[in-house]
Amino acid sequence: TGAFTYDPGFTSTASCRSALTFIDGEEGVLLHRGYAIGELAERSSFMEVAYLLLNGELPDASELDDFVATITRHTMVHEQLASFYRGFRRDAHPMAVMCGVVGALSAFYPDSTNVHDAGQRLVASHRLVAKMPTVAAMAYKYSIGQPFLYPDNSLSYAGNFLRMTFGVPAEEYEVNPIVERAMDRIFILHADHEQNASTSTVRLAGSSGANPFACMAAGIACLWGPAHGGANEAALNMLREIGTPDRIPHYIARAKDKDDPFRLMGFGHRVYKNYDPRATVMQKTVREVFGSLKVSDPVFDTALRLEEIALSDPYFIEKKLFPNVDFYSGIILSVIGFPTSMFTALFALARTVGWIAQWNEMITDSDQKIGRPRQIYSGPTQREYVELAQR
Length: 391
Ligand code: CMC
What we know:
mainly alpha; CATH 1.10.230.10; 3-stranded antiparallel beta sheet; globular; binds carboxymethyl coenzyme *A; acyltransferase; Citrate_synthase_sf; membrane
């Protein structure tokens, strides 16, 4: 009993105060610490954005150098972690591996698990941001049976990740600057998105005082769902299944059919009732990457046509369903060479910055209590126990 506000899915409940990210869903605006996502994606780097989210201000040149040096110093993972991977089946989904491995980091770095120690929180934050590319690349290498590559600290954050993913010990790996820039931009576009399901999960897990590695593992588990980060994988699979533009109307009809569970993946958003500003940048990036690399993929034409048809259909207009960040990202990721199963792992890699920044904000917020939602009880009232023989 009790008079609680019933708000399943938290459509109207603010669970915290946050100074990190602002979204105006009606206007399609996304700001990190006041800076527009389009401008950050165009003009800054993922390391700058990570610094901004973690520290509140953009770094000056020497602050950025120091930050990059700190992150770079933490790129290696404990050697023993490699055996952790070997316990998985080779065909394990990278997100299944990531849930386990990231959660296990707390066992490898127990000296940064005391959430009440600001110094330990800082080291944990740096470790997580630094090690996620290594952890994600290892998941990929394990799945294709190639040896793990150690990080190369002479490379950029994105460049190092690309090399650990696509390089082999037998050959020099040359980072393609166009791909490196696109990768960095994709990381920026995924860095944070206020109180989405996985971020709220991280905050809720962290509200009990759980260590940051465990909280990230909780975030990864939540992100994996197809309604959330898993949508990038689902969107590209859908576009491939549609195949050619002439088959689009059939899928549009299915998406509108209430008796069919099918949804257009990469479409719709809880907060955006307008074009997702990240999708705008993503679409532009696909064009740039295709142009610079002189490649194309018919799936992009299918995506553009699908968007056009959906945005002129009364169903999508009335429900204000627009492409979201996941609609176009898979197209670039697949051109870069990632299998669809890695897409959500890349999302997790980049979102770790947002998760850890939000986690730090929560821990240092004096209003914060353990997250403990209430419920509207709908079960039976108290009744007598009946012995087994009498039931
Ligand atoms: N295709 C067809 N119909 C849709 C879609 C879609 N993609 N999205 C929403 N609708 C309909 C839905 O059926 C509902 O109709 P009605 O009011 O008649 O029941 C209405 O639009 C509102 O949908 P909802 O599910 O109540 O809205 P929500 O805010 O709970 O869900 C969402 C938001 C993102 C989960 C949903 O739009 C969706 O499932 N989209 C596809 C998956 C996807 O692309 N997810 C990525 C989200 S953005 C990045 C991220 O988080 O990773």
